[in-house]
Amino acid sequence: MFKPSSVDFENELKGETFGVRDSSLLVNPLIRFFIFLLFLSSPSLYLFAATITSVQSGSWSDPATWGGTVPGVSDKAVIKHDITLSGNESVGAVDFGTSWSPSTSYGTLAINSGKLIVSGDVTFGKNGQAHGVMTVASGASFESGGTVKWNQGATINVYGDFKAVNFSVTNGNGGNFNVHSSGVATFTGDVTIGSGPHNFNIDGKLTIQHDLIMSGAGHLDVTASGSMNVQNDMNLAYGGMVSGTGTIKAQGCTNNNCPSNTVLPVSLLSFVGESTGEGVKLRWKTASELDNDYFTLEQSSDGINFSEVARISGAGRTNEPQKYEYLDSYSIGANYYKLSQTDYDGTEVDLAAVRVDKIPVKSNLTFYPNPVGQNRTFQVNGVTADMAWEVYDLAGIKRSEGLFVSGNTIQLTGLNRGYYLVIILEHNTTSTHKIFLQ
Fold first, then answer.
1. Tens digit of pLDDT for each residue in 410-436?
2. Which of 28, 103, 238, 357 has the fewest C-beta atoms lying within 10 Å of its C-beta?
3. Tens digits of per-residue pLDDT, 266-316?
4. Does domain 362-438 have CATH number 3.30.450.20?
5. Which residues pair with 377 in a beta bridge?
6. Could you tell me the residue ranges of all domains in the chain?
7. Helix 6-13 / helix 29-41 crossing angle, nearest 10 deg
8. Quick one: 5 exposed, middle or buried, by C-beta within 10 A (0-12, 13-18, 19+)?
9. Given the DSSP bridges, would you call strands 279-286 and 322-328 parallel, antiparallel or unpaired?
């Protein structure tokens, strides 16, 4: 990170940088010390070591491309010409700009081999002008620790590996995001399309680990050879924004505008354990399944150390509700059970957990409404005053809890839209149910 040199610091103390006319105010050693600490502790004073702008087309590693200095790990690189990259490079941020001389041209970047790592944001059209182009060749990689921003229409071609935290489109139109058959694009956060029209053509693999939000005009097409996996919610302003014959996965679908061939992953409705004279009977229900190879049941006597007791075949791909059950005839005393699901590709997801003692679990509980409205209030019918409830997110983090002493209504606050697990507890027995908050 950039730190001022001793010469710069002395100049600042003399008022040459800060614009202070009476430098005597800064002579006091204590004042000098606090100013020095200010520079060390305030990132806003030095976001980047330098902003280095291309002056001609050429190789990224050629100093002549940048007027003498190749952008370094803390620098911001502004691309206004045709730049090629072959090798490994790291910078703080990248902006795509416009060159006006000797003729108007928009910045392009072709990552032909190696890897470009950008610790911050990548911005197209920062001044409302540039329509930059980025291409990641097969075998090459691009990674951003920030947000890829389209302030104007741009073009991104992915033949290799492309990874960023978020993708945000706030202005412009005519942009194209193309994931070719050999390409893999991953966003660990949200993809938000707020303007358009823009086109997204997925012939390869696109993974969005949080939400896909399309509120502006745009179209995302997943071809027969392509796949898109939205690991949280798909929120589309209207139908037809996402289409195609390829594989389309989503954890949830807001506004019911997802394409008809979208299949949610295993959507668990309930997981219940009941102590019987024969052992512990475990029952669970799913609303839909996508490429579900099998379920795995694990048992523990302490809730910490689990061992597998059974594998039950899944339904593969279906939008129809499914029911399953398993009898563990070897259970003794308190038992904890975990339910997980494994896809055909080997991906495993934990679904729910339940504790079962010798007390029969309530099996006649109903939740209304489900999905739960924006007031975050719902009722659980069939509970009694001696029962309690806990709410967990899908990561297994407890988000709320309470008792049914004053009634069967649950009021949740501070929770975002999505799926949650509600665990109903009666003495040492639990049942798990899934709700969706709109």
1. 999 999 888 888 988 876 567 788 899
2. 103
3. 778 889 888 876 778 899 999 888 788 999 999 988 788 899 999 999 998
4. no
5. 411
6. 6-45, 51-254, 265-360, 362-438
7. 120
8. exposed
9. antiparallel
